[in-house]
Design a protein that fits this description.
mainly alpha; Recoverin, domain 1; two-stranded antiparallel sheet; about 5% strand
Length: about 110
């Protein structure tokens, strides 16, 4: 699904990417992600980071090189798709809640 991103959204994704890109080379490497997770005390293995990179590259349909890095474009596409999925899930939950809340008691 293709959609236009407004300036606010673009800047939000760009800022997040920049925070994660510790060496400022314009790509998220295993080293960048490992450092970011470690700094935020999020336990993760190198295998999990490699799998995350593979998934993001696959989902964004924008494969980069064989160096296992995430480009900003791939990152942004994945973030946009994730945000859209969350919105769809919230809408579905609200619909189902209203459907099953027969007496409107909340």
């Amino acid at each position: 699904m293709l959609r236009v991103v407004n300036e606010h959204e673009y800047n939000k994704y760009k800022n997040i990417f920049h925070i994660l890109d510790n060496d400022d080379d314009g790509a998220l490497s295993k080293k960048d992600l490992c450092y970011s997770f470690h700094e935020n005390k999020i336990p993760i293995t190198m295998e999990e980071i490699e799998e995350m990179i593979d998934i993001i590259e696959y989902l964004s349909e924008n494969p980069s090189n064989n160096e296992k890095q995430i480009s900003f474009t791939s990152f942004m596409i994945t973030m946009i798709n994730n945000d859209e999925k969350i919105k769809q899930d919230k809408n579905l939950i609200n619909f189902l809640f209203k459907y099953f809340d027969i007496d409107n008691l909340g």
